[in-house]
Amino acid sequence: MSGPTHAGPTRRGLVAGSAAFGLTAGSGRAAEPATGRTLLITHPAFAGHETGLGNPERPARMRAVDQALSAQDFAALRREEAPMRDDAQTAILRVHSPVHLDRIRAAAAGTRAGPVHLDPDTVVSAGTWEAVIRAVGAGLRAVDAVMDRGSGIANAFCQIRPPGHHAGRDTAMGFCLFNAVAIAARHARVRHGAERVAVVDFDVHHGNGTQEAFRSDRSLFYGSTHRMPWFPGTGAASETGVGNVWNAPLSEGDDCGPFRAAWTDRILPALDAFRPDLVLVSAGFDAHEGDPLGGLRLVEDDFAWVTTRVAEVAHRHCGGRIVSMLEGGYVLDALARSSAAHVRALAASAS
């Protein structure tokens, strides 16, 4: 089965070879007491989404983050398994077309003879359907938890795969099948009556699917730093939607200086002015300097810094409600350290 194609270099081609910069990690999932106000949602099924030899978006990503978040300083995290929810497909249809939903379902059902490539990057295998439905379910559950003040949950990190922010209404691309963060944002609007929902994105690649889903809706905000020109070729500062899209492109080799300036001078003031009722984060860690093909030079402290700054805006406007969802990050050591720094900053902001 062939799926949508896109021009220019593939995302897989840009990050291929990252597997050589890996981490040997055990499953490491801990079962510590649930005493904190930060919720971690994940599931073993995410490692069941098999993408084939040489694909950097691979099950080992989950094991690397598992290991990092099993450290003692994360003992207070509340931990839940990502659910298979009855409302997941209804939620998907708020962002994606019925044709796209059926295409992904049919591709997953057709994997008995082996993985199916929807494009050179994007693979569907026998474990994919459960993984993508649980990824959507993780976002829905996290939104429900942080919007319910009786839950005691201030914020959440969804450790999921496959990533989602490239998936458009009718398009799977860049490893992404369903846009879980955009689906979670729509869920907050429909289920919880949130009037203004924001997604901020610091993946090295622009979240073209999220921008597509939001660009004509003033109740939704999208702000992104990303390398440009780079896959997928979108994300210019001139792409502003209806005044609700704030792109801050970075150049190859940029480090903490341009990155922090982009957030301080452009995205955070716009987010503050938007006054969100909920902030979602597309947390991609492939802008880390350890990724030889990401092309940016961020370190763990930069991800902690931006998480803290976003949390400050969330505290001013929505009681600190944040739902973060894992996107990219393909060099395992860097992914593990960066995820830990991000979750540590979320937990500190919730205390």
From TrEMBL:
Any one biological process term the GO annotation gives: epigenetic regulation of gene expression
GO MF annotation, one: histone deacetylase activity
Span of domain Histone deacetylase: 56-346
Pfam entry (one): Hist_deacetyl
InterPro entries hit by this protein: HDACs (IPR000286), His_deacetylse_dom (IPR023801), His_deacetylse_dom_sf (IPR037138), TAT_signal (IPR006311), Ureohydrolase_dom_sf (IPR023696)
Gene3D superfamilies xref list: Histone deacetylase domain
Lineage top rank: taxon: Bacteria
PANTHER family (alphabetical): HISTONE DEACETYLASE HDAC1 (PTHR10625:SF10), HISTONE DEACETYLASE HDAC1-RELATED (PTHR10625)
Family from the record: Belongs to the histone deacetylase family.
Protein name from the UniProt record: Histone deacetylase superfamily
Source organism: Methylorubrum extorquens DSM 13060
